[in-house]
């Protein structure tokens, strides 16, 4: 099923997500790389 997904990340969008994460998190966020990694390998878990 995951072969049906094409994931393209926009650098500007990722940067914007990091800015938002920095507003809510007091430390440097490591959440986004984990989410991106899981999304690229198992996109169906986010449905």
Secondary-structure element pattern, one letter each: HH
Residue share in helix: 40-55%
Mean pLDDT: 76
Number of domains: 1
The strand count comes to: 0
Largest sheet: none
- Tell me the span between the first and last alpha carbons: 12 Å
Helix run count: 2
Strand content: under 5%
Low-confidence sequence ranges:
none
Q: What is the CA-based Rg, rounded?
A: 12 Å
By secondary-structure content and strand pairing, the structural class works out as mainly alpha
Query: Can you tell me the overall shape?
Result: elongated
Structure description:
It comes from Salmonella enterica (Salmonella choleraesuis). This is Cytoplasmic protein. The chain is mainly alpha-helical and 47 residues long. The protein has one domain. Helix content is 53%, strand content 0%. The chain is built from two helices and no strands. The protein has helices at 11-24, 31-41. The longest helix is centred in the middle third of the chain and has 14 residues, at 11-24. The protein is elongated, with a radius of gyration of 12 Å.
């Amino acid at each position: 099923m995951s072969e049906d997904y094409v994931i393209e990340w926009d650098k500007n969008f990722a940067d914007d997500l990091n800015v938002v994460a920095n507003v809510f998190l007091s430390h440097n966020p490591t959440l986004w790389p984990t989410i991106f990694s899981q999304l690229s390998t198992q996109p169906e878990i986010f449905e």
